[in-house]
Structures are given as structure tokens and as C-alpha cells.
Design brief:
By secondary structure, the protein is of the alpha+beta class. Helix content is 38%, strand content 16%. Strands 1, 2, 3, 4 and 5 form a 5-stranded antiparallel beta sheet that branches. α2 packs across α6 and α3 runs antiparallel to α8.
């Protein structure tokens, strides 16, 4: 799949705008995959590199790159989940421990970390850019033919859990993108009606 992609443009290269009806068709039926249905195989190392490169092609006011990635896979992901479980159990919180299933089952998780910079660009815009990275990573993974689900849960917000992941300062978990091969197709869910969400400013 990655062999069909064009090479990354170099700085200053002209980027022609061409219609991409296949992208519109993809977006018309895009559906996240249940995390609990994801199994091996996960993307290869080369495919992961490609996905992360694509994920960073997002709006980024000020060109700050106010985000980073933490890859969780194999024994390291199992060890991370075990430490979170020990944290929950140590607090006497079996409900929190039970919520780790979505993290444990898929073979690959990519934590998208919002890492805002001290700059004139408002932090809110930097946070939105991290959200755009998460969405683009999700879409690129699905377009590559793998299943993917973007989640947050208590371990995205808990200070001790964030320390285990290695976050510091103003960093936050924008989301865990869980990736693998789905055992079954995703079912369409209810979608919003666009009309009531739209208004036109009249002055």
C-alpha cells in the first residue's frame, strides 16, 4: 500500500490541487473499528512511519509542531497496561482496571500527545492542531486497510498515568489511536442530521 504513495514533497515544491473523488468516497463511509475486535497483524514498521508522516500534514499555525507520538506495541504496551492496572487496583478501583480492555486488546496503540509551545500562537490553536493530527492518523490508518479507533479514558487524564507515559509540563494525551486488523466489519452508527447544526450569518 505504501509503495503507491508519492514521495514526501520538499520544502518549496509546488503542490498542485487535484480533485480526489476517492477521498470523498472514503469519507462518506468512514467508520472507526471497535477496539475489542482488533487483532494482528498491525502495520509494519515502515507502514507506521508512513502513517505518522501523513498524520503530521495538518494545519499548524506558526509551524510549531505542537504534538508528538508515543508508540505502544508488544511487550512494552503490555507493560504499560500492567502499570496502569496496578495503579487502578492500588486505588481500589476495579472499574478503572476493567476499562483497560480497549488498550490491552489491539496490537498497536499510538498515543497522540499535545505538546503546546510557549509562543504567540494561542494554546487553543495548538490543541486543535493536535486534534487534527489524531483525526488524520485515524483516517490514514483506515485508508491503509487497518482497523482503528481513537479513544480517551481515565488514563488519558490521570496525572499518575500521564507520568507513566512520560508526559511533562503542559503535555496532554489528545488520544490513543488503537490499531490492528478487525475480526469483523464495523457496523454503521447513528449520525447527526447536518441541517440543525448549520446557520448562515446574516450580519
Amino acid at each position: 500500500m505504501t509503495a503507491d504513495l508519492p514521495p514526501a514533497p520538499q520544502f518549496g515544491d509546488p503542490i498542485p490541487l487535484t480533485p480526489a473523488p476517492e477521498v470523498l468516497k472514503f469519507l462518506a463511509t468512514r467508520r472507526s473499528t471497535s477496539a475489542l475486535t482488533l487483532t494482528e497483524p498491525a502495520p509494519s514498521a515502515g507502514e507506521i512511519e508512513t502513517l505518522l508522516r501523513l498524520a503530521t500534514r495538518v494545519p499548524d499555525h506558526g509551524k510549531l509542531s505542537p504534538w508528538r507520538f508515543v508508540i505502544l506495541q508488544g511487550d512494552a504496551k503490555a507493560a504499560f497496561a500492567a502499570r496502569l492496572e496496578a495503579l487502578a487496583v492500588g486505588r481500589g478501583d476495579p472499574t478503572a482496571a476493567a476499562k483497560l480492555g480497549k488498550l490491552k486488546v489491539p496490537p498497536l496503540a499510538v498515543a497522540v500527545i499535545s505538546a503546546p509551545k510557549a509562543d504567540k500562537i494561542p494554546q487553543w490553536e495548538q490543541l486543535l492542531s493536535a486534534g487534527a493530527v489524531g483525526a488524520t492518523l485515524l483516517y490514514a490508518t483506515l485508508a491503509m486497510g487497518y482497523g482503528a479507533n481513537w479513544i480517551t479514558d481515565w488514563y488519558a487524564y490521570d496525572e499518575d498515568a500521564k507520568a507513566i507515559l512520560g508526559l511533562s509540563g503542559d503535555e496532554q494525551v489528545a488520544g490513543f489511536v488503537l490499531i490492528g486488523t478487525p475480526r469483523e466489519p464495523a457496523l454503521e452508527r447513528e449520525r447527526p442530521q447536518v441541517g440543525p447544526l448549520v446557520s448562515r450569518w446574516q450580519g
